[in-house]
């Protein structure tokens, strides 16, 4: 017998709905009050008790005018059924509590390293009962197949079935170490960048940026290719003086302040991709998701609580 047929047979043998009604009637010793608790009519309660009695083959209650009492069979059954339903309630409550204590976040590696890791400590100080598990990758995870509660994604926000909130624009610009810039006498015009090694020249951000800078024909195709897999790694290579990286400048303000990186031009590229908070629509009222959403609202100036499109001027 396969698992599905076994479950169906057990369901027929164990009338859970009728047992739930019996537990309420035995506790209240009243069909009427049990019905009020369960949202059922007295007739429906009586019907469920009749079904259970037929299933067991014994009467469970003695019906007297304005009063019911348990039979010997009912008296033996009532405490065991009560204990079973209490155990079920405790099990469900325990799982629900455990679920609300752990917030599973999926995030791109760069956003995790350059923004999220710096702010998660503050979130946990504000929400000491919520632990955080962080997973990073560039893969779009399927919420139905993982334990992930919410994700921070880069893209255009076109993910059907997900509630999305705009976080910040994903614009980009060249950045490099001041020492590397000084090695060619400084960077004064966009063409000067072509004198240096370009980190990942096949990244489409480069073509978009040079077009925005007035150099749509910049020759990038014949340069030595290198693909480091994440913006955070490209930034580390740029800080080490190994070339010019195309980066999201908001993530590297500390490195600029410390003199490890410089942004030679105010020109910003934008290909329509931005950072978003996303989660399944059905989980929008989860307390832990509400807590993280509220934290982002207070922490990220451009966060859009209503969440469908980038805020104008952001």
From TrEMBL:
Task: State the SUPFAM superfamilies in the record.
Answer: Periplasmic binding protein-like II, Winged helix' DNA-binding domain
Q: What keywords is this UniProt entry annotated with?
A: DNA-binding, Transcription, Transcription regulation
Keyword Repeat tagged? no
Q: Name one GO biological process term.
A: DNA-templated transcription
Q: Where does the record place the HTH lysR-type domain?
A: 14-71
Q: Which domain of life is it from?
A: Bacteria
**PROSITE patterns reported in the protein's UniProt record:** HTH_LYSR
Q: One MF term from GO for this chain?
A: DNA-binding transcription factor activity
Q: Which PANTHER family match?
A: HTH-TYPE TRANSCRIPTIONAL REGULATOR (PTHR30537), HTH-TYPE TRANSCRIPTIONAL REGULATOR TRPI (PTHR30537:SF74)
Similarity remark: Belongs to the LysR transcriptional regulatory family.
Protein name from the UniProt record: LysR family transcriptional regulator
Q: What is the lineage of its organism?
A: Bacteria, Pseudomonadati, Pseudomonadota, Alphaproteobacteria, Hyphomicrobiales
């Amino acid at each position: 017998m396969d698992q599905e047929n076994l479950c169906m047979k057990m369901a027929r043998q164990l009338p859970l709905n009728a047992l739930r009604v019996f537990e309420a009637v035995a506790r209240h010793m009243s069909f009427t009050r049990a019905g009020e608790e369960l949202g059922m009519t007295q007739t429906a309660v009586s019907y469920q008790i009749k079904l259970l009695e037929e299933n067991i083959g014994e009467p469970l209650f003695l019906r007297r005018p304005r009063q019911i009492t348990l039979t010997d069979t009912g008296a033996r059954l009532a405490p065991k059924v009560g204990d079973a339903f209490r155990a079920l309630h405790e099990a469900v409550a325990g799982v629900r509590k455990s679920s609300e204590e752990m917030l599973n976040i999926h995030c791109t590696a760069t956003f995790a390293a350059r923004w999220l890791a710096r702010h998660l400590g503050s979130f946990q100080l504000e929400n000491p009962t919520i632990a955080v598990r962080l997973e990073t990758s560039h893969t779009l995870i399927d919420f139905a197949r993982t334990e992930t509660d919410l994700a921070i994604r880069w893209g255009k926000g076109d993910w059907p079935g997900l509630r999305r909130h705009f976080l910040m624009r994903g614009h980009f610009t060249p950045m490099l170490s001041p020492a590397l810039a000084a090695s060619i006498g400084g960077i004064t015009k966009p063409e000067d960048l072509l004198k240096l090694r370009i980190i990942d020249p096949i990244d489409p951000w480069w073509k978009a940026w040079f077009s925005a800078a007035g150099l749509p024909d910049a020759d990038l195709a014949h340069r030595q290719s290198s693909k480091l897999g994440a913006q955070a790694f490209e930034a580390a290579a740029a800080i080490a003086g190994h070339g010019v990286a195309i980066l999201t400048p908001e993530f590297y303000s500390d490195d600029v302040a410390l003199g490890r990186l410089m942004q030679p031009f105010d020109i910003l590229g934008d290909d329509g991709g931005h950072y978003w908070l996303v989660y399944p629509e059905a989980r929008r009222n989860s307390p832990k998701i509400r807590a993280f959403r509220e934290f982002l609202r207070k922490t990220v100036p451009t966060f859009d609580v209503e969440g469908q499109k980038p805020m104008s001027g952001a």
